[in-house]
Amino acid sequence: MTRGLVLSGGGARGIAHIGVLKALEEMGIRFDRISGTSAGAIVGALYANGHTPDKIFELVKNLSIFRSVRPAFAWTGLLTMDGLKELLMKSIRANSFEELQIP
Length: 103
Prior knowledge:
Blueprint: E1 4-7, H1 11-26, E2 33-36, H2 39-48, H3 53-61, H4 65-68, E3 70-74, E4 77-80, H5 82-91
Parallel strand pairs: 1-2
Antiparallel strand pairs: 3-4
Helix pairs in contact: 1-2, 1-3
């Protein structure tokens, strides 16, 4: 039997997912697949890459909204998420789902 985890979106919920992951780990519950949307996808990707909930919390805690969201003034919108993209590029070395520890 395989066990999957689905994480929802929402900035504050994304941070709450970190605590849930920690509690599930402490209970010995592991997952074979992880899926998420928005903030849940970010937390899920970091976890699937092998980061512990404590490490994910440190990454998120040290991420400033002013460093992650930058003015763009382009046809795609007024803001870019380049800072968040940089954090994810440094923290997730995998280039495909198959390379993650948990798909």
